[in-house]
Amino acid sequence: MEIGIYTFADVPAGKPEFAGQRLRNLVEEMKLADEVGLDVFAVGEHHRADYAVSAPPVALAAGAAVTKRIRLSSAVTVLSSDDPVRVYQQFATVDGLSNGRAEIMAGRGSFIESYPLFGYDLDDYDELFAEKLDLMTKLNESGERITWQGRLRPPLNNAGIYPRPEQKKIPLWIAVGGTPQSVVRAASLDIPMALAIIGGDPRRFEPFFKLYRESHAKFGYDPKTVQLSLNMHGFVSDTTENAKRIYGAAQMEVMNRIGRERGWPPQGMDHFERATRDDGNLIVGDAARVTDRILQLHEVFKNTRILIQMAIGTVPHSEQLKAIEILGTQVAPAVKKAIGK
């Protein structure tokens, strides 16, 4: 199983001027994740004051220059409000810089700021993603030239797409938030699925993994090619007590800030403590505890990848670096050894 981290490169609330330093910290985190042997580093796209990355390929290109083996992915690329040709060109560039380590994780995004920002109508929310995903898959399969036509984007007539990636195809994942239609769509296209779990008992999402596998087989694809990722929040430190102390306040601040925008009830530290239990949505603890939680989840989901969002809100950069080192040198080897057995 692949083990990695994803981040939105949070900026302290009300301090957008911190973005430059956060981006420099982000490159340092990618470099360390590579050095300690993690498999994937993924960077999300947002267009808000509380996140530093609005252009994941640019950040990943900086990471490509200081890493050697780690996979570099978006998490996610908001494909609905972007142009698939431009996305493909940007990630082909990252692929060249990284010698074939780029990936695209495409989704509709958990925020809607990018739609009005780039002139898209939210009434076309579903159709935008379906049409642009179709074009993205065609770009990945067509070779240098492509002819394509849709309704919401101008057609392409024998258009040349450059630069070409190092890989034959840029690995493409679909990020879903838990709707059966999204799961079936990913399976029908033989595209790996990443499921984000940010609340509740993770086991309630197991039917979506089952649905993917059943649909994937129904469409005639080889079960051996199934790739499924869990994307979850979590943190690791030298002790479980320290992990909770460092991550708890930061997690609650972010969830309550976003919750006020979305009408969620406020959460306190008792909610955080419940979320760190075996039936909770947070993977928090020392190396042994985090290893056990990842293995427990793997027993349920049989996932082939897990990405953990550890840098959230005000988690200090120094603690994030320590967490990356523990995840790469202690947790990942223990998990892979146990699954190998």
Descriptive overview:
This protein has a single domain, classed as Alpha-Beta Barrel (TIM Barrel), CATH 3.20.20.30. Helix content is 45%, strand content 17%. The chain has helices spanning 19-35, 56-64, 84-97, 114-117, 125-142, 180-188, 206-218, 240-262, 269-275, 287-301, 317-340, and strands at 2-7, 40-43, 71-74, 77-78, 102-107, 145-148, 156-160, 172-176, 193-197, 228-236, 282-285, 305-309. Strand 2 (40-43), helix 2 (56-64) and strand 3 form a beta-alpha-beta unit. The longest helix is centred in the last third of the chain and has 24 residues, at 317-340. The relative contact order is 0.14.
| Percent helix | 40-55%
Q: Please tell me what the overall shape is.
A: globular
Write down the CATH topology. TIM Barrel
Tally of separate helices:
11
| CA(first)-CA(last) distance | 12 Å
Per CATH, the architecture is: Alpha-Beta Barrel
- Sketch the topology as an H/E string, one letter per element: EHEHEEHEHHEEEHEHEHHEHEH
What is the total tally of β strands? 12
